[in-house]
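Hi L., both proteins are below.
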Amino acid sequence: MKGQTVSRLRLPRALTGLGGVNGLVHTDMILAGAVLAILTLLFLPAPSWLLDILLAISITFSVMVLMTALFTRRALEFSTFPAILLIATLLRLALNIASTRLILSSGNEGTSAAGQIIEAFGTFVMQGNTVIGMIVFAILVIVNFVVITKGSGRIAEVAARFSLDALPGKQMAIDADLSAGLINEAEARERRKTLEAESTFFGAMDGASKFVRGDAVAGLLITFINLIGGIVIGMVQQGMSFGAAGQSYSLLTIGDGLVSQIPALIISIAAGLLVSKAGVDGAADRAMGAQFTMYPRALAMVSVVLLIFAVLPGMPILVFLTLAILFAGGAWLANRTLMRTQTASSEAEATMATPVEDSTDHMLAMDDLRLEVGYGLLPIVTPPEGPGLTDQIKALRKAIAQELGFVTPPIRILDNLRLEANSYVIYLKEQEIARGDVRPGQFLAMDPNGGRINLVGEPTKEPAFGLDALWIDDSQRDQASLSGLTVVDAATVMTTHVTEMIKTEAPALLSYAETKALLNALPEKHQALVSDLIPAVASVTIVQRVLQRLLAERVSIRDLPTILEALAERAPQTSDITALGEHVRTRLGRQILASLAEPGGQTAILMLSPTWEQAFHAALTPEESAPPTGPQLAMAPSKVQDFVAASLAALEKAAAEGVSAAIVTSATARPFVRSIMERVRAQTSVLSQNEIHPHTRLRSMGQI
């Protein structure tokens, strides 16, 4: 099936890691038992009939690995290969030791002392000529050790090096696509996971190739020991003549060497194929079973090879024939399951009446945030070297998440040929909310105190805050910095503008879905609070409205548990969003005051005079005649203008001293004072007396 992966291929439990009916057989225990059995074989003697079975399994295992490597499309589809290679090498070495024990201890009894398979290999290859057998064995060792193993190891080493060297660039490309909105967070995580898996796989293959090389050397040494040791034992201990000892032990030694070298050669070829063409999920036994049964043709080919072995002269027909039948049945089951999956996929595609590009959700989809740039700004979006606009936007999303407490939607960056070359436009849900002009290659110089800039450049307005600024070239950058001016590049200007617009429009970005995501993302210890609050006491919509109200005044909602606790306290008495928001602000008083503190730890405040306090209280509608949404302010427009003038004068006086002061009012008047100030000076914070924490250090700048 095209594009099929391990996770999508559903196979019967009997095929996925040999899991028994209803999970009665634990495959992890089978794998652990098999490894322990191999280790036991290193120390305990094995009879010849058991050695025949194990040698047949070793040959079968190597052929299955080769067939799977041949039919694997991507290296990561066979990501368990390094672990399989270790197990296969350990099995062959254990069989080498077991056969060596039989050859040296019982070689005088005849050529069948080490089992039928070793005798058959020795007899079939040597054809009665010891020299020919040794030459054939030496050629196989040379082919495996010098050619295949060495080449596979070199390919694995180069692949691992290139994979690790390319990793930073691939990660940057993923981050750029994520910042540009081309992919979402889930796709970015999946791509990073694939990159990590590839680097891990090729690094493991670089080390695993040493297993193959060591196995070839060990096989050569064991064969030499068997031949010399067997002749010595036969002549000295068994009283055999040199010719008889040489004939018997050489046949057994060459047969044993061939039985071990042929599977080693097959595994070496599989390793070379795999690294020439990395991560796996789940336990190793399930992954190995799923990957072996992914291609039924591979199982069928294994069955054919086993049938050929069964008909070779001297081979144990029953062992190979049984294995061939088992693999043929596995191939049939795997193919039937694969056909069912393909049929189900085709039916699902056929039932889709509307193509994706013509579907309703595709045609009506809109970007929550989009940044369109003119063609002249493309070099700063993706610069040839160094971080660009996409990297800065990714960083600002993290910074906003830390500051405001929720993750903003991805910002899609597009080029727009209809814009001026150096212009950009910021869109919120397809509606333009801001635009600006920057000069690529130049720097924007601003005086933080609003003073005059004595440099040569192009006068302009900083787009985010409207400050007087000057575009200067690189030659004046150091002079501007030494003069105490703030100097930023074009990408930073755009990023700052986007940041301020996101903070301003944060309430609109906090949708119902985002609110649900925030609630679901709370740690397990806070989920009981969520279940007690929603929906019995307050709905998700009420929580959303309260959070939006906080964000509108740039109050962080990161401490969501405290906000929910405050809602649980107040929501049973009222559903008024204003009253709920004011109660939550009281609980967040320490946090709010900390965000307004100056470097010295003090918070500058302007108190609302008793006169204005009385004026606001007198202008509120009586409680008995107030609408369901709560009291309303009915102050005369002229009175409002007087209050605005008095407030701005006091704030400007504080600003002249280099202080950004907050206005402090009574809890009743605070919402209405804020509603007036946000229209004339939105960046000014308005606090209620209930929000001031007892341990907060205040600095009074006077009264309004």
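That was the first. Here is the second:
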Amino acid sequence: MSKQTATKAFHISGMHCASCATTIQRALRKTEGVTEAAVNYANEQATVVFDESKVSSGDLEKAVEKVGYKAHISDPASIDRAETERSQDLTNLKIKLGVSGVLSLILLTSMVPGVPMIFADPWVQWTLATPVQFWAGKRFYQGAWSALKNWSANMDTLVVMGTSAAYFFSAFVALKQDWLTEQGIETHYYFETAAAIITFILLGKYLEIRAKAKTSSAIKELLGLQPKTAMVMKNNAWTEIALEDVSINDRILVKPGEKVPVDGIITKGETSIDESMVTGESLPVEKTVGDSVIGATVNHSGSIEVSAKKIGSDSMLATIVALVQAAQGSRPPIQALVDTISSYFVPVVIGLSGLTFILWWTLGPAPQLLLALVSMITVLIIACPCALGLATPTSLMVGIGRGAQKGILIKDAQALEIANKIKAIAFDKTGTLTEGKPKVQNIAYSDGAHEKQVNKAIISLESLSHHPLAHAIVNHLQEQDASLTVQDVEKFKDHSGKGIRGMVKGNEVAIGTHAFMESLAIDLDKDLVQKTKQWQTKAQSVAFVAIDGQHVASLGIADTLKKNTKRVIAALIESGIIPVMVTGDNQQTAQAIADQAGIHDIRAEVLPADKERVIQELRQEFGVVAMVGDGINDAPALAAADVGIAMGGGTDVAIESAGITLLHSDVALVPTAIELSKKTMTNIKQNLFWAFGYNIVLIPVAMGALYPFFGITLSPIMAGAAMAFSSVSVVANALRLRTIKLQ
């Protein structure tokens, strides 16, 4: 059977920590037919690449269920489910946190001198501590049991081992206090310690989940753009139906002020539409019959009827959401190091806690057993690896979401990580650095020519041509003089590749190339010809205009730079990145555009098939190279570059080949994307430094490294507070990316 590779991203319920994600990831990778699996604890999402001929969605669900979790592969509303679960979890945590907080506070009063003796009664303490240990702390026991069944250990394992040791030792003391005293063993209760630790960790978990909810705000904002209903023609009447019930080719009515429900084609009416959500263009775009419209854009001025062409998951908005989700669930190369360390971390900590117990019991001061037990519990609690597991994915989620808000769609985390190392950027010319639409740059008339009459003749003749240069000429003249009217043309003839001619109000008018004028035996005006030569050095195409055999005007037409191109190129050069133009145009045209843009490295006359080779050459010359393009011919180069950046208005194949897509087709977003990469990677490194530093510094302290020198030990309660604070601080640092200023 042939190999049929598929990729699925889906929500997973029941994860408590980063180690849970590692356990699920390991189970999925062991499933026959799965070639790659990545599980992200931060957004509770798995992304799996598998062979459909060997493994089904049901098999993947069973693999996840076997290790104690729930996969929602067939659930189309996984985002809503994740939000609902998170909301329910927060509600449950709030209740448990309130109860455990009150009970722990009562237990802690036993340590205050002068309080009533009832608070110090072991049976009262045992009664108060039990619901905290087994009701409020139930989630930790469930997570530890799931890990144990799979012969692994996680954060919950450390919490359960530490708090259970404190709780059951205290229970044993309460039952056998007299016997222990007879044996000469000093007794002490740690019910308040176990309860306070669970309360602190629940508090950290509550704050962590609240913060994680904010990291998905970009997706929620995108989903919020979509209208919920559509007015559809049913049985010869307009009927409002749910958006999910709309079918392909349905006739949809969109009134002024309403959002367009789906991607489609206008079949009736004219209007202007605010497409800033997709294009970033602040001004409304005029639309008429035959023009395409995008779902979630806003209809401004007129009522229109739209034929639905893309609905549901095929719509542009759904595609954008899917890309953001997939990117947030992907894993950058730096995460591989973190995963490797995490896989050894928990077993090492358990070993260190055992070593701590032995050292204190054998070498510590009296009471050795109690100090050994307390130190062991402290090591187990303080080493919980939550901060380590959250360090990378949380920053990625926020950074990718921030990019989506700016119109930068990052398809995978690897592109985001590599973008901050770019040394050179290859730019396609047409449609990337330039508008991709020719415009009239210059117009000159011969001495004695009546300009308005000449313009009327030009616009009348050119309005019959379908050539792109003809549209540019007509648009320019109409913008210059709205009073120009199109006159009747007789004997119109299009000489392909040369020019056009016809009779306008009894005058013979010809517009075309220099060669076309010569073929008509028209004597060209020397002054006009001299001007056109200067235009041609600036990569302008020249159209000559003759009326009744006399050369009366010339027009210089060229593609123009996008308004931000010069500023972007200057900014890149200033930051040490080399811009390179790669184009199929001739050297003269390429040089003219490059001079305007400020680009010094030009690769001209490059065939589409050779663009990939040019990228390989640039990689050898500069190192990490990005490619920015928009056309089908750019796709191989986009795929070959270390980072491919596609313009959002480009072809589907170009967008598919790129790691980053600029929704607004604005070249100014290129340095913005690089800046976002740098700030996100800096944020990740800050998180990793904090997470690693926290464990490197505090684990030895918890083991008692300071005791021989200063007589200082760390209490389990403080260890629980420190562990909770470390996770919250990592998430809080990642959330700073939501408010960073980008160019």
